[in-house]
Design goal:
The protein has about 150 residues and is α+β, with helices and mostly antiparallel strands. It is built from 2 helices and 7 strands, in the order H-E-E-E-E-E-E-E-H. It has helices at about 25-45, 125-135, and strands spanning about 50, 60-65, 70-80, 85-90, 95-100, 105-110, 115-125. A hairpin with a 5-residue loop joins strand 6 (about 105-110) and strand 7. It binds cobalt (II) ion (CO). The site of cobalt (II) ion has 4 residues, from helix 2.
């Protein structure tokens, strides 16, 4: 177990597209990554972290919200509706907070920490976090979506 180094805004890796995880062949390595990602998330008081933010181009996200932990492997947003504006931060941009428009509701399909395919309906802040983190997997950052003053 280890806290991993966060990649910051000037690091080109944040613009790269993360790869689909082959869950059948890498279970122990993925679990190790997930443990480290939660440790890194907690050490930095974050709500969500994508693997690319610790330099791993795999489609893995960890989230801690309302005392609940979520692991999303190969997440796919299959429905989004409504909108909300929320002030967001990002562990890769420690000093920056911007208002961003996100869907109010997202339905996401993913593989969980037990390597089971599952679905989750998220509203409010959890929907914001899922939208922000899945964007990371495609090299999209919240600064791209900030509402212009
Ligand atoms: Co972020």
């Amino acid at each position: 177990m280890a806290i991993r180094n966060i990649r910051y805004e000037t690091d080109d890796i944040l613009r790269k597209k993360s790869k689909i995880v082959d869950v059948d062949n890498n279970k122990s390595k993925i679990l190790e990554l997930i443990v480290d990602m939660f440790e890194t998330l907690q050490a930095n008081n974050g709500l969500g972290l994508a693997a690319v933010q610790v330099g791993v181009l795999k489609r893995v996200i960890v989230i801690e919200h309302d005392n609940q932990r979520y692991v999303l492997i190969n997440p796919e947003i299959i429905l989004q509706e409504g909108e909300q504006i929320c002030e967001e931060g990002c562990l890769s941009f420690p000093e920056a907070f911007y208002e961003v428009k996100r869907p109010e509701h997202v339905k996401v399909k993913y593989i969980n920490e037990d390597f089971k395919m599952t679905e989750l309906d998220a509203h409010g802040l959890l929907a914001v976090i899922i939208s922000h983190e899945t964007d990371h997997l495609d090299g999209v950052l919240f600064i791209d979506k900030k509402i212009k003053e």
